[in-house]
Amino acid sequence: MYKRNLRKTKTDKLDCLSLSELFFTTDFKEYIKPDDIYLNMNALSRQYHALDELCVNLKNRYKNLVYLCFPEYELIFKNKSIYSDLALSFIEKYPHADIISNTRIDALQNFFKKNGFRHWKKKPLTIKEYAINSYPSVSKDDEITSSLSQLARLINTYQKEIEIIKYKIIFLGRKTKYFESINSIFGIGEFTTSLIIAEIGDINRFKNIKELTAYCGLDPSIKQSGKSINIKGPISKSGNKYLRKNSFCINIKYFKCY
């Protein structure tokens, strides 16, 4: 247990060093407690990732139920707009095609008008036409319909909580020392910068780039025993998985720009 570290490196030399350290020394490495701002940012980062993962699962379930209750919703709210506040509020109130068919057009128009939609007169006419000609797989009294309404409400709530967390973590991130330096890197916005700082903490605790690479789990695994050695193994993936995920997203954004 003493010789375990972030690196998946197993060599005869390191084995001897670990055994000698364990025999001759009894003191472990000094632990430096990070500042409260980094602890708070890390807590917000983990909360964001937890809610985001949960929200993704709910969205997948939500999309499947939309196909059963009113598949034409994808034609009304195209692409990612089906997860917008307006779409979620509307689907929560009118989760089934038959419910819309039995609702007066002025009631639908009033809903869009209250939510500040520009084409509040025209949009309900299109929705009403789709609803009349729709053939849903379940009835409006089915439990699946009520489940869709519940999912729309939950996703809307989680998305609002995620936005609050984003605001908080950016607010704290701007107070840190290296925020401007990291944010100046091409393809990294304020939120991604804050997530990186939240997971790294005080970067001065790393002596060199190799330690930071190992903390991200991006260093190659090395195995050696006797005359057999493999120095070109896959990445260790033994470090911070959230930081490694952010690094992957940064690479994707960078390549998309070209």
Describe, in plain words, how this protein is organized in 3D:
The chain is mostly helical and 258 residues long. 61% of the residues lie in helices and 3% in strands. The chain has twelve helices and three strands. Strands 1-2-3 form a three-stranded mixed β-sheet. A hairpin with a 2-residue loop joins strand 2 and strand 3. The radius of gyration is 26 Å and the shape is elongated. The two termini are 46 Å apart. 18% of the residues are buried.
- Global mean pLDDT: 84
**Oligomeric state of the chains in view:** single chain
Query: Given the C-alpha coordinates, what overall shape results?
Result: elongated
Largest sheet: 3 strands, mixed
How do the SSEs run, as a string of H and E?
EHHHHHHHHHHHEEH
Helix content: 55-70%
